[in-house]
């Protein structure tokens, strides 16, 4: 398979065409960003870690019958995925209060939530990714009512599967963000990535952060922490 022209460049990944219009070549970058791009750094090794972590997690989700776009690893920082039209929504699932949720509602970080909460954010840099309700999503014609129901259900299924996975790695899944895409026939696939960049992961015993909050909050070096997440994933697969 040939790597073709650049299709799209995001904050953490580049997407390239291949000789098959149904397949996209992804290169994970070393760039880290926070505060919608206001904080930006090159962190050597980050792309390789997120590529490998995402690949393993998407394979695990496939084994749990959660349809996703992942095909296979190509190299330490490259993978092949199925081409989809990304739905411009960030679907956030929360099990424990943290981050923007704690700030907005004055609920202390670390407070467990009785049942998982699903939130939708409109992916739009100019608007700073505002939170949107189902009515807003329909009004803006981002997705239909039926698609919104599917997104919510798939997000909750991913939550259950990931809680189980991370629990087996001695990690608590606090919250995470998902993105979804449509295939030509209209079916919806989980897309983008699932990594310590997109999840809040706390060590079960010590509550230490094993995720991007280390970077966002200037708590230290993310590389050993992301490596620890990959090591625990690999150990599980042995
Ligand atoms: O910042 P907030 O508390 O809303 O983040 C909720 C979850 O979504 C966190 O796990 C965070 O890593 C993830 N997220 C993300 N990309 C964004 C915003 C949030 O991966 N643009």
Describe this structure in words.
- This protein is an alpha+beta fold and 238 residues long.
- The chain has two domains: 80 residues, Phosphorylase Kinase, domain 1; 137 residues, ATP-grasp fold, B domain (D-amino Acid Aminotransferase, Chain A, domain 1), CATH 3.30.470.20.
- 31% of the residues lie in helices and 33% in strands.
- Strands 8, 9, 10, 11, 12, 13 and 14 form a seven-stranded antiparallel beta sheet that branches. A five-stranded antiparallel beta sheet has the order 1-2-3-7-6.
- Strand 4 and strand 5 form a beta hairpin.
- The radius of gyration is 17 Å and the shape is globular.
- The model has no long low-confidence stretch (mean pLDDT 97).
- Cytidine-5'-monophosphate binds next to strand 9, helix 2, strand 12 and strand 14.
- Keywords: ATP-binding, Ligase, Nucleotide-binding, Purine biosynthesis.
- Pathway: Purine metabolism; IMP biosynthesis via de novo pathway; 5-amino-1-(5-phospho-D-ribosyl)imidazole-4-carboxamide from 5-amino-1-(5-phospho-D-ribosyl)imidazole-4-carboxylate: step 1/2.
- Pfam families: SAICAR_synt.
């Amino acid at each position: 398979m040939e790597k073709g022209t650049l299709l799209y460049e995001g904050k953490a990944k580049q997407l390239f065409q291949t000789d098959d219009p149904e397949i996209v070549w992804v290169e994970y970058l070393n760039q880290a960003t926070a505060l919608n791009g206001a904080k930006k750094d090159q962190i050597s090794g980050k792309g390789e870690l997120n590529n490998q972590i995402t690949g393993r997690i998407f394979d695990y989700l496939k084994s749990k019958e959660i349809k996703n776009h992942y095909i296979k690893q190509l190299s330490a920082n490259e993978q092949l995925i199925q081409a989809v039209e990304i739905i411009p929504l960030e679907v956030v699932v929360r099990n424990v209060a943290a981050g923007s949720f704690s700030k907005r509602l004055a609920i202390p970080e670390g407070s467990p939530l009785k049942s998982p909460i699903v939130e939708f954010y409109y992916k739009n840099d100019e608007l700073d990714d505002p939170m949107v309700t189902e009515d807003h999503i329909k009004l803006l014609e981002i997705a239909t009512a039926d698609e919104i129901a599917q997104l919510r259900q798939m997000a909750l299924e991913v939550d259950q599967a990931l809680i189980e996975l991370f629990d087996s790695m001695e990690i608590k899944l606090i919250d995470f963000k998902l993105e979804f895409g449509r295939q030509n026939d209209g079916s919806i696939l989980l897309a983008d990535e699932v990594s310590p960049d997109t999840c809040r992961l706390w060590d079960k015993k010590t509550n230490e952060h094993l995720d991007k909050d280390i970077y966002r909050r200037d708590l230290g070096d993310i590389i050993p922490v992301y490596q620890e997440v990959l090591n625990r994933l690999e150990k599980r697969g042995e």
